[in-house]
Each structure stands twice: as structure tokens, then as C-alpha cells.
Amino acid sequence: MSEVRCLNCLERFPVAPKAEMATCPKCKTKYRISWPTPNQAKIKGLA
Amino acid sequence: MVWNRKIAFINLSTGKVSQKLVSKTMRTLYLGGRGLNMHMLYTLLKPKTDPLGHENVLFVGAGLLGGIPCLGSGRCDIAAKSPLTGAVGDSNIGGFFAPELRFAGFDHLAITGKADKPVYLLIKNGEVEIKDASHLWGEDTFETQTVIKRDEDDQNIKSLVIGVAGENLVRFANVRTGMKNSAGRTGMGCVMGSKNLKAIAARGTVPLDFAYPDELLEYCKQMNNMITSTRWAKAQSRWGTMIIYSNTNTTGLIRTRNFQLNRLEEGEDLEPENIDRYSIGTSGCYGCAVHCRHRYVLREGPYAPLYGEGPEYTSLGAFGTMVDCKKMETILVANHLVNKYGVDTLETGGLIAWAMELYEKGILNDKMTDGLKLQWGDEEAVYEMIRKIAYRDGFGNTLADGFRGAIAKIGNGSEYYAIQIKGMSNLHSDERPTPSFALGIATSTRGADHLRSRPAIDLYGLPEDLLKEIYGGSVATDYNSYDGKSRMVWWQELLYAITDSIGTCKFQTVFCAVHAPKWKEFSKLIQLATGMKLSKAQLMDIGERIYTVERLFNLREGFSRKDDSLPERYFKEPTPIGLPAARNKKIDRKKFNKMLDEYYELHGWDNNGIPTMETLKKLHLDKEPSNLT
What we know:
By secondary structure, chain A is an all-beta fold. Chain A has one domain (about 1-45). Chain A has no helices and 5 strands. Chain B folds into 3 domains: about 5-205, Aldehyde ferredoxin oxidoreductase, N-terminal domain (Aldehyde Ferredoxin Oxidoreductase,  A, domain 1); about 240-425, Aldehyde Ferredoxin Oxidoreductase Protein, subunit A, domain 2 (Orthogonal Bundle); about 435-620, Aldehyde Ferredoxin Oxidoreductase Protein, subunit A, domain 3 (Orthogonal Bundle), CATH 1.10.599.10. In chain B, a hairpin with a 3-residue loop joins β10 and β11. Helices cover about 40% and strands about 15% of the residues of chain B.
């Protein structure tokens, strides 16, 4: 499972495959997600 | 041997050309590229040389590793005294020119004088020819390259060219090659224009003769695999350097409306993923496995059909967030225009954004702007200002002299709103939450600049023990902190002096990942390519020597500690929005000055930023050699 790093608290957290949204489990910041490759998530912007 | 390439000294006033080998001694002191260019800039220019006069020398330098098949080894360094700042003029360009120059038998060109009519240089297998370029004068940067290939009946010729901005002596005119690559900063295109030099074309078939070719090829494969396995490179391969926007705009680290905001609200259309609407594929520079540039097409709208390459994150900010334009199409059109005219995207965007804030505040009015309403988000005003700058038309003539010239003309408190250091505009990043970035732009030898030191990994929240291992001393994890950040900047300055001197891409170092190539890998590549054994400590000394020579040049031109500072707004105006780590942040002047003291000490400079005699002796700069053999 791919991970992203929260831009608010810098916590790394997993993102479900093909997910378009994700929430940092530590600080609860919500993000929109994109996928440069099928196995690598990246933060697109704030949700 | 591969390092055994020549320097061509070309006097455009007399037409005389002489050649000299670069000695191994000079290689061990300066490597090549930026390093050797900086040495020559310091030793061959007289103090207070007029940047637009015959005596200024334009240096073109391929990196020592130019031509190896990894790390984007096509980088070329172009230097002179800057007509924009009066300080070190230096800009680095990717593409394919530098390897071709090496294949033609040369590593460096030193061009002085002024031709009595437009000319271009043709450099081919050990020969340098000065050719008439009257028919190219007035042509844009794309057409100029096409015509040279046609005239020489050789589609494989690679050229460095200027556009109309360089011809018109716009002080931040750039030098370009291919559709996308630019030596953007410090006005090297203006220096070419001042010499009536329209282009430098190279073509060659002289082998490079690497010291250990088989081992080098194998190691280059390892380097490419290492780079392409990083998360950064994978994302960059897909969407280019624009991926930085995802982080900076989300966090609140991006200048918006010049310096009024630090995030573009409703800026979703500028997200890098949207380049997919226009992209027809990607391509790369010489020796690069990442391929970060998009080839894009605009098929609809008033500017269609339009083909361009890029855009970089720089253009996204320059013609997006900075001027409050929120459409990807605006970026693509403006990027194409600055490339066509040959003018620096960052300086152009920075000046237009500044002018828009002055217009908003009533410091500029319609009469002063030729009736052009410089309002936020007006892309047509942006396009028109780009044209007016390139042609020095009306108000464009004011901005074409850069911040210093424009401030002198406009006055009326306009200086406070100018986001520039040493006369050069800053990238559209907002460094108020990141003291390391702030120190880096303040101390850069060529003016506000992210490419001399930017320690991007400061944003990764890496553990302190890992940071200590990388930087060789204590560095705080928190990017808001000032602790240890002087060390971070100093170390990065030395590393990037090396990448610019071996001719590899900065994105393929610690910028992309902590385990990406650094000293050890560079040392091995140099050994396999040239046979020279240089340890990490020796490479750091070379980086220190190059940076200190640049410092000496600037000191000689009258720059001092007072110039290693930030625009006042960084100290006075806190960031208004963003995530908590980026919101309500400004630079603490006392802590900044402490960082600056520490930074000078790390370089071996005194509290005024002057290198001590002990440092000069250590770097063999106390008796600066006056020749190159």
C-alpha cells in the first residue's frame, strides 16, 4: 500500500489503492490524492 | 583523456581565436563548468567592468562529466558579470549543447569584445568560425535554431541562442537551446546581445575517451536505476517539476499576488495533473532517465495552435500564483512567449507581479503603464507586458532594466514591495516559514536564488540523526526552526557548486531523495570518467573554493554583508494563510543574523563575510593564479 506524508504534521500514512481522498490519522487533515503510477500515491491538494 | 579538452578564447572585436588546453591542475582545483567559469570570471575580468562593455567576458562551460549517460549530464554553465545585478552572472542550462561542445573538442569558451555586426559562432571538431548572423537578427529563439540547422545543412547541430529580448538588451534576457531549456538567470542573453552575438552552434565527433568506459557505463546504469526508483522521480516523470506546486500551494509556501498571500485559493486548475489535458508526451535532457518536460499542444482558444515544452514549476508561479491567474492555459501561453522572446520567466513574472501590486496601491497609474490596466488575474495584461518588456516598448522599457532600474524610475516607495535580493527577483516561493530557504536566497552569490542552495529535504521532517549524518552536524528536524540551518545551506551550496561543475542535474541529487547521489557517487563517477581520484573532503574543498571565488568577485564589486539580507516584508509581514506550520510566520531578524554569523563561520569568512587569510591559504586562493596552465 502506498504512503503519503501529511503536509501539516509530517506523519506518513497509508493510502488505499486508487483512493481519491485520504485523511491523516494523526492531525485529521483531509487531502485529495492522485496517482503518478498505479502504486504510488501523491497529495494533490486539500480536500 | 576526457578532461583534456580545450578552452577557446574568442575576441569578437578582432576576430582572433586562440586555444588552450585545460590543465589537470586546474581540473583538480575547479573541475569544469561553473567552477572553471568562476575562476576565469574572477581572474580575467578587471574590477568594475561594464557588464555591457566590450571588456565583459562571456564564459560557456561544459561540466567535467558532460556526456556521460546518467544524471542529466547535459548541463552547461554560462557566466559573465551580470548586467542585472552587477554581481556574479551565472546560469545553468540543460538540453544537449554541452555534450555537443565537448564532442566538438572544447569544454570552455571565453568570448570577449563586440562584433561590428550580428554574428554567430560555429564550433566544429576543433575549429571555431565567426559567421554572419545578420539574417538571424530579429528572429525568435525557435526560428534561429531552425535556420542555423538549415544554413549549415546539419540537423544535429546544437545551438545556444538569444531572442529579441537579448538583442534589445533586456537586462534579464536569457540564453536558450531547444524548445524548452533556458539559462534563465542574471541576464546572460543580454551580454550576448551586447556583443552582437546571436548564437553559438556546436557539432562534433571527437570521442570523449573515458578512463574506464565499461565500469563507467555499468555505474551509470546503477545511478539511473537509483534515481528512477525514487518517489520524486516517478512523480516528476509524470508531471514535471510542477509537482512541487501540490505541496507548496497546499501547505502555504507559495507567493501569491506578489507577496500578499502565500497560497492561491481556488487554484486547482494549476495542479500539475491538469497538464494531461495538453500533453502529447514527455522528453528529457542529455543523459537523463527522468524526462520531466512535457511536450504540450494548445488546440483551442485565441492562441491556438501552439506547441511548447515544459512548463516548469517556475512558470507556474511566475504567471499563475504571482499574478493571480488561475488557468493552466495562461501558464502554457506565457511560458511559450517568454521562451520565444528569450527572457527569464522568473524575473519577468516577478516584475509583472510587483507592477500589479504597485498599480493596486496607486503607485503606478494608467498614464505610467501606457493605459494598460495591470489588474490581478488579467492574463491578457500579462501577455502584453511580456511583449512590451521583450521589445522595450513603453512601460516595458522600465521593467526591462530589472528591479534596480525600475525602482530608480518609479520611486515613490515602490522598493518596499519589490521581492528581490542583490537586484534579482526571487522564485515565487514564500520563505517566511522556512528559515533555511530564507538564508539560502539571502546569501546566494547571484541574487535571490533557489538554485544555489535550496535544501528541499528540510521539508521532509527527517529524523535528527539522519540529518546529522548527511550534513555532518546538528540540524533541527522542524523546518520552522533556525537551529543548524546555516549548516544545511552551507553544505548545499558546496554540493551544488559541484553539480554545476561536473555538469549534472540538481534534481538528481538530494533534492529528490536523501539516498540520491552525493559526494561518494560524484567521486566515483569522476574517477571512472577521468581517472582522477578525488575524495569527499577534496570535493567539498573544491565546492568551497568555487563559492569563495564567487564571494571574492562580489566583494570586489562592492557587495558586502548588508546585501546578504531579505526584503523588509520578510521581517515585517507574517504569512496570512496556510497550514499551521506555514501560517502567521515571518523571519525573526535577530535569529536570522545569528544564522548568518554561523553561515560565515562555516565558510571560513569573518563576521563581515570576508574570507579570512587562513581560508584563502587553505583553498590556495591566497596567490590566485593568473593563467590557466
